[in-house]
Amino acid sequence: MTDRRFGNSGSVLFAVTIFTSAFLLFQVQPLLAKFILPWFGGTPAVWTMCMLVFQMLLFGGYAYAHLLSRIKSHSRQALIHASLLTLAALTLPVVPAAEWKPTGDEAPSLRITLLLLSTVGMPYFLLSSTGPLLQNWFSKACPGASPYRLYALSNIGSLLALISFPFVFEPAFSSTAQAWLWSVLFLIFALSCLMCSWKTAMAPTPAETGTEASLIPQTADVVPLPRIRWLILAMLPSIMLLATTNEVCMNIAVVPFLWIIPLTLYLLSFILTFESDRFYRRRPMTLLTACSLCATMLMLSRGSMSGVVFQIALLFGNLFVVCMFCHGELVRLKPDPKQLTAFYLTMSAGGAAGGLAVGLLAPLIFKGYFELPLALVACLLICIGTFLRDDKQFQQRVPPRTTRNMGATLLSLCFVYFTCFAQHAPDVLDVKRNFYGVLRVENDVLESNARPMRDIVHGCVVHGRQFVDRDGRYQPSTYYSQSSGIGRTLLTVDVDRPRRMGVVGLGAGTLAVYGRSGDAIRFYEINPDVIDLAQEHFTFLDDSHAEIDIIPGDARLVLDRETDQNFDVLVLDAFSGDAIPVHLLTSEAMQIYMRHLSAKGILAVHISNSYFDLEPVVRALASESGLEARVQKCAQGADGGVAFNSVWMLLSNDAAFLNTVCGPDASKNTSHRVVYWTDDHNNLLHVLR
Length: 689
Hints:
The chain has helices spanning about 5-35, 45-70, 75-90, 110-140, 150-170, 175-200, 225-250, 260-275, 280-300, 310-330, 340-365, 370-390, 390-395, 400-420, 485-490, 530-535, 540-545, 555-560, 585-595, 615-625, 640, 655-660; strands at about 430-435, 435-445, 450-460, 460-465, 500-505, 520-525, 545-550, 565-570, 595-605, 630-635, 645-650. The protein has about 700 residues and is an alpha/beta fold. The protein folds into three domains: about 1-205, Growth Hormone, Chain: A; about 230-335 and about 370-425, no CATH class; about 480-685, 3-Layer(aba) Sandwich (Rossmann fold). Strands 7-6-5-8-9-11-10 form a seven-stranded mixed sheet, sandwiched between helices. The chain has a four-stranded antiparallel sheet with strand order 1-2-3-4, with helices on one face. The longest helix has about 35 residues, at about 110-140. The two termini are about 55 Å apart.
């Protein structure tokens, strides 16, 4: 029982400190990733690199807490930790220095790593150590209380930070203001952490409380087998979280902020299982997990035959059930508080291993998103294996030989399932995967007239199409048909002289068909796999009469370094689904575009989107730059059924030309909003439909 001299105030202090540390951890991750996103091109690789650095720092923090807790003298522990907290305070605020902006001559991955380490490395390292370290101190200060409930509390802090960042802090504050606010909160956290250390030092020893040392549970060093089980049970939910997020957000429904739901379910399972035993009942949860996994495997094998809502609900439900099972088993296997830091260290290693498996290894090994079916198979084997190993009634009723035969049959079925899943559909010509996602080239036919065609698809979004019959190979379609905003522009602008055009986003290279003899078209494409597929499977680039250049890399960074290109038309076509590269629509980006436009050049921005209304953002940029703005829409099925619904905004100081292309009535602002974005302050909630 907790000594009264320690009091409830001590417990509250530990709880508040651990809650604050978890909140700050989940706040600074998206804050700094967003801060440096424009510097390194706004690519998904930036987010991936940031998450890997943070995961390694988290593991380092847990390792530090484990080593520090092995020092017998608490005063020495406190002195070391206080010294490091002081050093961390000297690195504040967590505002990246401008000197870290890339110059083009260095490896981005290394520069991002060094930037994060120098900016937030020490504070993040110490925040990561707080959970296991303070729980260890708490177990000494309050020998009668369970420290594991504090872990549930820390996950509540993480969950609150996760939800509050996009919906509260990001809309209200600029990135710089958030960084300063975070730095002030870190100083408050550091002071409360020092107070926890003092409270622990003042707490009575076991002899003072009348508890004999011999009565305190003692455990030997943890043997390797339990640690391996800790590692696996922590790694599988991490893999399942990332694999489910990829499957839902890339292949099923590109819906804004949908990624928040799986991470929320992941944290919620930690909160419930570590808060109380009543939320995890082993036998029913094992049965439910096995059924959920089998249902999900069946659904994936059926593909798009299931409805979108059903697929998302089943995948998210399965994720939650699997996390509850794995984390519930972790709670069952949790050691005595003497081994608390080793337990959390192994858990963090499992989480980091899962992140590395999906973030780094899977893109290198697999061409498609095969980590989800592989994770489902692994979870099913672990689930059933756990049941067979520990259920005494089953062991008494079923002979060991029958159990072995059942296990062999299950392994064979899982192998057959994964092998079948990994086979490409017959209409898929090519599949490539890298940090930017999975790209497929597929053969299909147009429903209206059965014309054969070829698509380049990213997730569930078509990024280019070409008809494969002799006449159709020269026909622009989808968002680039002749009735679209960009089609009308390129058919009208400077018909009597050669033109210079810049295009941000290659796709299948469709816009090359508008090139005439003497024209020069310069494509900017960040994804090298897009370039390879456009050149290997589509003929737009080879058939064009214009001179074609393809510049690899992020368009904003490349344009910023290039000399003035004097473009007659500059096309921004990098907006689709939930993947909005915000750094291409800020005031700073607009200044770069203006430098590359000719005196009467046209900036054409593709803003077709089901979820975000980008018109007010583009209009604000046009107003700031002194340009006229028009909206040109194209209906689904136009141009003989080959067009998609599309919305293009055309910006120029040549109002007469815009009126010719769009008509004088197209200048009306249909959104009735003004949204001004800068690199330091922008938020997608402002433009959510």
